[in-house]
Amino acid sequence: MKTSTPPPFDPNDPAGIDDLLSADEKAVRDSVRQLCAQRVDPYVADWFERGTIDDVRGLAKELGALGVLGMHLDGYGCAGMSATEYGLACLELEASDSGIRSLVSVQGSLAMFAIWRWGSEEQKTEWLPRMAAGEAIGCFGLTEPDIGSDPGSMRTRARRDGDDWVLDGRKMWITNGSIADVAVVWAQTDDGIRGFVVPTTTPGFSAPEIKHKQSLRASVTSELVLDAVRLPAGAVLPEVRGLKGPLSCLNEARFGIVWGALGAARSSLQAALTYAGERTQFGRPISGFQLTQAKLVDMSLEYTKGLLLALHLGRRKDAGTLRPEQVSLGKLNNVRESLEICRTSRTILGANGISLEYPVIRHMNNLESVLTYEGTVEMHTLILGQAITGQSAFR
């Protein structure tokens, strides 16, 4: 039995999970953290308050230069990093803001992944290198104004007209929509659901931005309107038909959320811990009171469990053994617990918890959206319920 002296206790990593990461994984994490500290953190509260990101295209190019756009994909200018490295990047991005992680997730795990996995060679060579560099921005059109958790009932339709396709319909709550150069749009056809690569300059395509959000304000969210959008035969994704296509993309994005939500939790927890050590009531810091310590311990415990789960799922994804139901397990748990961590952190900060001088209320509001998108709590519960019992309860 070894009797060496253990390292000092780290309040930010109480279980010593850093020991489970490789040097390369830590390097990826640290490089993303450094970019966010310089390029995002000083400005993001102002972006959130104003509901806009200054120079979003410039930020996209910086993220592309760092290699995080489509970073877990191979070839075509993509970095070819591991799933775990991608997860760690998502955690750091969302520690700054969920909207920044959403920009990266939609670009890489939805739009780029759809083209990379299901596209033609021509589509890949045309779009992926520019998207990996941040020179072209993508969006992903699946959700519709009246169709959310049941994408098989989508009303957007694509019909053949000679050799061309003509698309009509609307998509809703589309991240990056108003700034996108290309949209991956899913539509009903006579042969089932198909995906289309739609340059946003195509006549009949428009993407009005959605206003009056109180969540994900540092993120571009749009409606997509397709009014007789005519596309050549080569615009269709040739390698997939049916819901398998969009659901495979959603699974990639959900994996990023498993990690990303923990970033918002970590940021809020660290803010609460710092505040509790500085805020004095009844003659001593509030961190010295039992009820406050109970909150901090419970939050640290749930964050640690969530990070261990994310790391385990990342290792499974890198080994090729990760199942979609396991991604649902991670998304359901980690977003739910991260939101509770943000809410509890807000109570420690008291009235200051609602001020954008601190990150907590911003993270809390953002996670209300993260809780819903890429599959609601109800949908992931039913996915797991079916997997556990063998009985479908969707209908």
UniProtKB/TrEMBL annotation:
Domain Acyl-CoA dehydrogenase/oxidase N-terminal: 23-135
The keyword Transmembrane is annotated on this UniProt entry: no
Reported cofactor(s): FAD
Pfam families: Acyl-CoA_dh_1, Acyl-CoA_dh_M, Acyl-CoA_dh_N
Domain of life: Bacteria
BP GO terms, sorted: fatty acid beta-oxidation using acyl-CoA dehydrogenase; fatty-acyl-CoA biosynthetic process
Family in the record: Belongs to the acyl-CoA dehydrogenase family.
UniProt name for this protein: Acyl-CoA dehydrogenase
Organism expressing this protein natively: Intrasporangium oryzae NRRL B-24470
